Amino acid sequence: MREQQILHKIKKGDQQTLNNFIQDLYPYVYSFTYRKMQGDDSAKDITQEVFVRFIRQLPMYHAQGKTLHYLYRIASNLCHDYHRKMQRDLHTDIDRQENLISADSDVHEVILDQIRNEELMYYIGELSDSQQDVILLKYYHQMTFKEIAQSFSIPVSTVKTRHTAALKRLCALWKEGGYHETETHTGR
């Protein structure tokens, strides 16, 4: 069924269609929010809030592209708000993984891969909010530049500029290192 028809049925009060719609889109929104929140438990609450806000706004909502993109935008805004309110450090704690490294090279490689992924997520967390959105949607959700631009109602050229700036910043952060030093100095 086309998305417009689904939204029309939901606006008319079809609860089953709404439940199916949320069930279909929830994993995508949660995955985005989880990465945006760097694995923080609050990702579940924020994802729930995304759908609550969408349902509240539904009577006035006029689809301009995929609804999933609109949900990503709501999720991004809620994550930004959460970060501003909490003003907390989102560094990932790797101490427990370091203690698990053993002589077994397979376990060692798995843990090193996990540490590298955590380090990358840390560096992504150092980007501006708009750069984080582009990187997460492009590489973790396989969205095109055009889809990202439509999601945030900005020109494709702006998305590409943010993407380029984000990649340059990530490369610089990776070369500088500092992830493990930051972890050591903060007691993590």
TrEMBL record:
It comes from the Bacteria. One of its GO terms (biological process) is DNA-templated transcription initiation. Residues 22-88 form the RNA polymerase sigma-70 region domain. Gene3D superfamilies: 1.10.1740.10, Winged helix-like DNA-binding domain superfamily/Winged helix DNA-binding domain (1.10.10.10). One of its GO terms (molecular function) is DNA binding. Residues 118-170 form the RNA polymerase sigma factor 70 region 4 type domain. Keywords: DNA-binding, Sigma factor, Transcription, Transcription regulation. The keyword Nucleotide-binding does not apply. Belongs to the sigma-70 factor family. ECF subfamily. NCBIfam families: sigma70-ECF (TIGR02937). This is Sigma-70 family RNA polymerase sigma factor. It comes from [Clostridium] innocuum 2959.
